[in-house]
Amino acid sequence: MISLFRNFAKSKWAMGLLVLVALGLLVTGGSQTDILGSLQAPKVISAGDRGMSPQEFRATMDRQLEQIQQQQGRAITYEEAFAQTDLGGVLRSQSQELGFFAWAWKAGIRPGNELILRQIRAIPAFFDPVTNQFSETLYQSKLAEVKMTPELLEREARDGYSRAHYGTALVAGLRAPRIYGAVYASLNQQARDGRWFVLTQQMAGTAPAPTDAQLNSFMSQNAARLRVPELRSGSLIVFSNPADQNIAIGEDKIQARFEFRKDALSLPERRTFTTLTAPSLAAAERIAAALRAGQTPAAVGQANNLRPADFADTPRSAVSDPAVAGAVFGLGLNEVSAPVQARVGFVVARVTSITPGREVTLADVRDQIVQELKGQEMRGAIARRVEAYDAARRAGKSVDEAARQVGAQIVPIPAVTREGRNRQSQQLNVPAQVLEGMWKLTKGRASEPTALGEGQYFVVRVDEVFPAAMPALNTVRDTVTRAWIARENVRLLTAKSDAVMARLRGGEDIAAVAASVGATLTTRTGLKQDQQTVAQVGEAVIGGLFNTNPGQVFDQPQEGGIVVGRVDRVTAPTAALAADEAQQWRARLGAATGDPLFATAATAAADRMKATYDEALARQALGLPEAPAAPARPAGQ
């Protein structure tokens, strides 16, 4: 075979084949040779073996946007969210984070499955409230509500452990230089003498009532802030009906549901136990012998450099390792198990409490069963109304006629902005999905039935569109007048302060200047930057005194006027008194340097993993307008 290849390589056919390959590369530039790469799905972020698809990126951003909406209590679009925030900065941060996690896994920072499962199974939201058991169904449904999957949650938990362990190791023993603490202590213990007075609005004069010409000019200058945004009014059709609350549930249905749910609703046996995980079978046998001899788990753990794991009143379903669960629930009270081969190491368990399980009766869970059945019937009634509404619309009936025919409710929506605020800027209780639907429609059009969650559906119609426009002067006269006067008063006060500061810088005594404007001069010595002093003289005075050199003057705005003052003297702290505080500042600063240090390490890890992001693909995933085309960029740029 080898001789056959050698003869072929010497033939004219081999030379011809090489010429064809060379011509192909010359024409294509080698750009078509990555066949497998062209088959891969595009990714918004790529970092080593990790990546984020457009769908995953959209789901992640949706969760963050929902959190912002809950905090602000209003609907927010991606256009609004990224109007003030650089999408490139967000992508850069996420790509650096993903690059760090890819590097950490490659470097060997890999939290075990047992650790991840234990954290997830400790989340109360995943436990059935009746059985107190971990519910796989509840686990799946709760994650679906927040647009997550079990795989994504486990990956985030693993990433969180990697970040915490690496960060802890990074800052362990970190100490800031002594000079850092000395500088902070010196500034904090430093005392200053100064004199100051308050220049009030009355001393500077107040603005007269404005003319219409001045108000119109002011409105033009502030058009962006005064312009009334587009408003829309509409009608909301909801398919729930008050009569649904009175749906009667028959006893036969209650009994049938109870029989179906009886096993799941019954209270399981629960046990309190302690486990110790040893690295070898021999060590586990020694631990088991010591526990049987009467030693406490804490003492045995300390002797073997292990930390006992305590489980209080735990059902079998909450024990993630089947082998450990079988051993624990096969023991009697105060018995010690033989070493068990677990997923990680060898486990020895000791049971200290057993709470027998019991079957529930219909009387125990009757209310819960009735509520479940009522909810099911209500969702069924809503679904039937939606189907009947669709049929009526297809038959040519109007939205109002179809809604009345099926028994749906029509709720008027007053004129609101896209964020759900009325003309008086009050936030109305309009769901974000409804507002989003309204701004996808033109005047007079209605949406299709849309799911609102928990079996609810809605239809929204746009009745009127009020374009964005500047308000008439007479409609906002009082507001604009107050704003104009406030601006002019600030201008007058600032001009007076500038004149006073010019006199002080020219060498006039501060006492004479204060008397000339009718102000009262305050003189204080030995002032420090502590809360008590700030409460006495105000933040403006302290800010001016401690940010100005000795012999210099300052002006600081405060409520009701401007503080004008002079720093007369600076007294350095006593070294012995400042030493203890310097050590405290040093310890505090050492811990604070951990964040930037970790950020630098994360950036270096991302660079090593060649983390990149594609902003054009990210915009496409979020439905944002296209930006100027740019190639995928490294995470650090």
UniProtKB/TrEMBL annotation:
Belongs to the PpiD chaperone family. The lineage of its organism: Bacteria, Pseudomonadati, Pseudomonadota, Alphaproteobacteria, Caulobacterales. The keyword Isomerase applies. GO terms for molecular function: peptidyl-prolyl cis-trans isomerase activity. This is Parvulin-like PPIase. It is a single-pass type II membrane protein. It is found in: Cell inner membrane. Keywords: Cell inner membrane, Cell membrane, Chaperone, Isomerase, Membrane, Transmembrane, Transmembrane helix.
